[in-house]
Structure formats: structure tokens, C-alpha cells
Design brief:
- Helix content is 26%, strand content 31%.
- It is α+β, with helices and mostly antiparallel strands.
- The chain has 2 domains: 10-123, Rossmann fold, CATH 3.40.50; 130-306, Tumour Suppressor Smad4 (Sandwich), CATH 2.60.200.40.
- The strands form 4 sheets. Strands 6-5-18-15-8-9 form a 6-stranded antiparallel β-sheet. Strands 14-13-10-7-16-17 form a 6-stranded antiparallel β-sheet. Strands 2-1-3-4 form a 4-stranded parallel β-sheet, sandwiched between helices.
- A hairpin with a 2-residue loop joins β16 (286-289) and β17.
- α1 packs across α5 (112-121).
- 50% of the residues are buried.
Length: 313
Amino acid sequence: MPPASDCLRRVAVIANPIAGANHGHSPAQELVDLLVHRGHEAQLLLTKGPAHARDHARNAAPHADLLVAAGGDGTVNEVLNGLPDPARTPITALPLGTANMLGHELRLPRTASGLADIIARGRTGLFDLGMATRLPDDSAHPPPGASAQERRLLLVASAGFDAMVIHHISAHRRGPQGLRRYVGPILRTACTYQPPRLTVHTPGQAPVQAELAVVANARNYGGLFHVARAARLDSGLLHAVVLRRASRLRLLVAALRALAARVAPCVALPGQAVRSVEVRSDEPVPVQLDGDPFGFTPVQFSVIPRGVRLLLP
């Protein structure tokens, strides 16, 4: 049994009890019990609604050596955004959600015992942090909540069809959201879907017209896809991948090719590495960050190299 790491002795486990298809309380409690048994000071903090994980992280960070987000990627994002200094207090995930992108990217164990072993070793490192800024809308009819706002992101952001699905899920979610529960929202979104008109601006390049824009800080997207194969959490850059045409059929083809880790034929910027990306549109288009809604376009994304500390497996 590995002893508790001196540098990560105080651990706060912030758990979303309705993560994924199962309740996240029991695995999180198991992790806390294991850590206490191994000599850590560990506490369990359950979330009760949106943004509660952010509040827990803000309050726990000054007194903890490590924060564990027990839930999905949305819980990880909330914890990230609650940190007073993300480069100082390390975070990790006990992957209990539907996609678990961070878990896939870092190959984190999905069991409490496996994660407890990694915590005991106490290895951390600095990785890139993304920033999203929702820009003021110059149109005559901006959507609700369109004022400037910033939020950190760790993995991936997008504007277009997938963000529309995520907005729909968020508006109608009433409990655990397993992978099968994505089918209905995807089909309902597809029934009324009209490809948006986006303009993607990157430094030193002419604007690109597109119907789907993805900004990746990591390769994995949705737990299934590899959209930007060259993206890395420690590259110091973001990767802009856009589809010039994103009809229902083209989205299906692109998804199948992404499943096979291939670049879709309709990609206009195949993983272009950039330090910032701006996405604008004639009409407001939904935006998502790490699997959670983030208002509507226009939006700007930028990168802070070595801006967040993560637990290393």
C-alpha cells in the first residue's frame, strides 16, 4: 500500500452525484475513504447544482494540496474555474461522466483505488490553460447574457451543431446523463438544424467562412473522437479545426472519420496551431466549453502556456 505523498496530503474531492449514467457519490466516497486510510487528510464535497463545484473549489483551494473533480468534464471545468490560482493548486479527475475527455487524454484510472495510487505518488506538472471570452455582440438583437464574460477551458470548445446539442441537454437535463441519453437531443437538434454561418479569424491568416468551428487544447473530443491529432496539453498552442460545410450528412461523415482518427475531407484549417482564435457570426450561434454551454458567438479563445497544474498518472 503506497503511503500518502507529503506534497499532496490534503485532498478535497468535489463530486457531482448525478455525473454520467450513475450516481457519483459512492465512488467519490470510496476514494475519500481510501485516502484517509492511507494517511491523507481528505474531505468529500458534494455539488447541489450548476456552479456549485466552482464554489467548492474556490473555498477548498487555499486549504488543499489537490482538488479531485469526481464527475464529468463539466465538473472538471467548474473546479478549474473556481481555483484562485490554477497554476498553484493541482487538480485531477475521477472520471465518472459520459465523455471523460480529461480521463482519456491523461489515461486516468476510472476506479477510486487506481486514482488513490496516483495521488500517493504525488507527481504534478504544468499544462496549457485555455481562456474563452464572450465578446459584446454588435448586432441589433444580441441574445440574453451576451455581455463580455471570461471562462477558463481545459480541453475543447466549439460553435455549431455540437454546441447546439449541449445547450439543449443543459436546458432539459433532470438527472444522470448517460451516453444513450444524448441520442434524443442529437436527433431533435438535427430535425431543426440549419448550418450556421461562422467567420473564423486567426492571427496572420485571412478569415475563413465555416459552418462548424472547433478549438482544441487536446486531441480527445467527446471521449470518442480525435479531431485535432496534433493538439497537446503542453504545446503552448490551440488548434483550430473548421468545417466549411456542416450539413447533416457532412457532419456524419466527419464524425465517422474522426472516430478513426482521420482528418475530415471538408476541414478548411486542419489542426492549425494558433495562440488565439475568434469566431463571429451574423446571427448568434451556441458555444460550448468542455461539454458545457458558454452562451453564443461572438467569442474569442486564447491560450496561457503552463497555466494549470495537473496530477500526472
